[in-house]
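Anyone? Bumping this.
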Amino acid sequence: TEPVAIAAVDLGATSGRVMLARVTPTSIELEQVARFPNGPVRTPDGLHWNVLGLYEHVLAGLREAARRAPVRSIGIDSWAVDYALLREGRMLGEPFHYRDDRTAAGVETVHAIVPADELYRANGLQHLPFNTVFQLAAERLDDVDAALLVPDLLAYWLTGRQVAERTNASTTGLLDPATGTWNAGLLARLGLPSRILPPLVDPGETIGALLPHVADELGSNAHVIAVGSHDTASAVVAVPATSPDFAYISCGTWGLVGVELDAPVLTDAGRAANFTNEGGVDGTVRYLHNVMGLWLLTESVREWERDGSVVDLPVLLAEAAVYDGPVALFDANDPGFLAPGSMATRIAEHCRDRGLPLPDSRAGWARSIVESLAAAFADAVRTASELSGRRVDTIHLVGGGSQNELLCRLTAERSGLPVVAGPVEATAIGNVLVQARALGVIEGGLEALRSVVAASVQTRRFEP
Ligand code: LFR
């Protein structure tokens, strides 16, 4: 059969891309049409996303995709939790970046009204200070009539329709994990106006046709289809699993480590271990823990490069792989590593304060970071399995981190489980698959989608 052309917009915290996919009932082929950097921009009031700049790149990428193939549909995913506030359709300022520290006040405000354990029962989320609920509690909302999460904002700009895609909405802390609908009781207690939350849609639903001026500009009559618009939800769709007993690690800026379940786990043990119940595609639950991820490495490199030197990451990792000096095994989950800036210095101070060994080279520090991430990954896999009762015999490591051989090898060693690495572009693939199914190109449940991935991509296996 003739392949069908589908575009995926995938915005990560460090880079965004527009991918063009050609899909048949049994295969998917990806081509990158645009890639652009992304990151926080600091203005006097705090850390922001340059979301108009991102939109400009997205439009250019989509135009190029439409030039190369007759694109039938477009799906958008991004990192979670962050949103723009709108009044009468107009964005009221650039969205805040989740690493902005204004959220501390919001955490206090919310917990004063709804204590942490109650909040966990109401939304099933691990405590992350930047969950949307805490951010909104730090905003003035009197004049606001809509809050749109980043992928929903872009979909609105493309189609004119305001919706909240459900997997990403699940990261706000305002969705009831039992019903998958906005938690009206919680909103009322927190004094958050429910009018600002748009109607929910599920992955696979059509959001709309392109607005006439957009269709003109892109030279396309594609429709925008809702996907797992939380990037992690899309990544989990594209895990090339061939049996159900797997854990996943979606590793990019963050390392999201967990299992896929049919129902949320809302136990005290789960809350104490800071495990989250996020919404997955097809009503599944992503029971996972946020590990700091490659952020520790890329942000250290940014500090090392501040003096004008250039750090070649693949070279550094190759040196780290053969490094045999002292290694600092530190807690990669320490909240002190959340904010941007001086990461290498902060890690070294963290280790010194705790009497850990101090490597004397960048390769040594890179090794320490990767070892510490691998240890945190292995730990989270074990905990996910214990807390959920799900057997795990394989770890699928997908996303940019799957290119990091050292990380894959050490994760296998530390977990005692085989690690299957790849695909690198899992998020874009998951985004595309959900569209392909909505278009009727591919049929079946997640298992069927995953077998298409398994048949279409190269993976590498690391034995423990
Ligand atoms: C990964 C991710 C995580 C989320 C974090 C912040 O890109 O979406 O799942 O916790 O970014 O939004």
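Late reply, but here is one note on the structure posted above: Residues 12-13, 79-81, 98, 230-232, 252-254, 256, 290 surround beta-L-fructofuranose (CB under 6 Å).
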